[in-house]
Structures are given as C-alpha cells and as structure tokens.
User: Fold this.
Amino acid sequence: MIGTSRSVRVFARPAPTDLRKGYNGLFALVRDELKRDPLSGDLFLFVNGRRTGCKVLLWDGTGLCIFMKRLEEGRFAALWRDGDADVLRLTSTELSLFIEGCELVGRRALSPTAIRLKPIATDPAA
Assistant:
C-alpha cells in the first residue's frame, strides 16, 4: 500500500474531481484549492462524481506519481457533503480502507489518534 507509515498525511479533495486531469491538473488543484504543497510528500486523494474512480497524487522525492483505481462494482465512500468545503484529512490506514471500499471512511474516525508524549513527572524531593 502507498505510504504505510502513520506519519504520512493524506488529504482528500472535498468535491468531485474530473479524473481526466493528469499531473499538472491535479498539481494545480492541490496548490490552489487545497492550499497545500504538492511537493511535500503528502498524499492527495481525488474521487470522481459517481464515486467509481479515484486517484492519489504523490511526490516521491524524484517526481510526481499518480495511483488510480476504478471500481467495476459498487462505489467508494462519499467524502463530501452539501456545503462541506473542509479538506478531509485521513490516515494512511483510512486511505487503505477507502481504496478497499469501506463505507465508513470520512464519516467517522476509524484510526486511533496519535499518541502524544508527555514529560515524565520528576520528584521534587530529589
């Protein structure tokens, strides 16, 4: 699977996308609509209006990559809602589930939140 580390960030465009777009078109959507750096190493997910196809744009350090999938049956989960213009952030696990057809992706958190390290309390008597 693409980017198996939890540190990999995935951003989904919150509107249907014309998947005829190639490298330059998706690059422009990331930069202009999602307000992200397409060369950051993050993954960017785009889904067509019928939710039967998706593309993932990725900068791998040497060039842009596009990974795509078209479903022969069924539909991908709906990542957008009426009037909802927020960029959807997914974990790499949620992206894997989305590509495999999980209907809950984008509706509720499926991955645990990241663990935040707290400083260890010191003994004031020491």
